[in-house]
Amino acid sequence: MIDTDMQNKKIHQGRNIKRFREMLGIKQEALAFELGEDWNQKKISLLEQKETVEADIVAKVAGILKVPAEAIENFDEEQAISIISNTASFDNCQQPAFFNFQPTFNPIDKIVELYDEKIALYERMLKEKDDMFGRLEKLIEKK
């Protein structure tokens, strides 16, 4: 059961933007660049301090970070930790499931699958690098 104080607690949307941005390894300057000419690092810093962020800005930031806007609007770290700690109790278990582990897959197939995923990720990273260089070239041309 979730504590009623947690249910009434206000979500800090600016802090959520910061969390998602940092988890994705995106600098404030890069987010500001993606948001447009009206934005800079200082403005992103101020945005991340706001408890409530305008819906249109949340939508733009969510699109850039490629996360659902609802994640920024509703994520509550304390509530998530509380839910996990309340549902992850091992007190009622006779023996944890990991002691009875028996693989139901072929490890070679899994290695091949992971290799294919690695190649796909590498190709996406190269494409994003090319896109970033394109944006930087456009920015340099403007100056």
Description:
This protein is mainly alpha-helical and 143 residues long. It has eight helices and no strands. The protein has helices spanning 4-8, 13-23, 28-35, 41-49, 55-65, 69-74, 77-87, 107-142. The N and C termini lie far apart (57 Å). Mean pLDDT is 81; it is low at 1-7, 89-93 and 95-101.
SSE blueprint:
Blueprint: H1 4-8, H2 13-23, H3 28-35, H4 41-49, H5 55-65, H6 69-74, H7 77-87, H8 107-142
Helix pairs in contact: 2-4, 2-5, 3-4
Helix- and strand-based class? mainly alpha
**Rounded mean pLDDT score:** 81
Q: Taking Cα atoms only, what radius of gyration do you get, to the nearest Å?
A: 21 Å
| N-to-C CA distance | 57 Å
Low-confidence stretches: 1-7, 89-93, 95-101
Structural key phrases:
single chain, 143 residues, mainly alpha, 68% helix, flat
Structure summarized in a few sentences:
The chain is mostly helical.
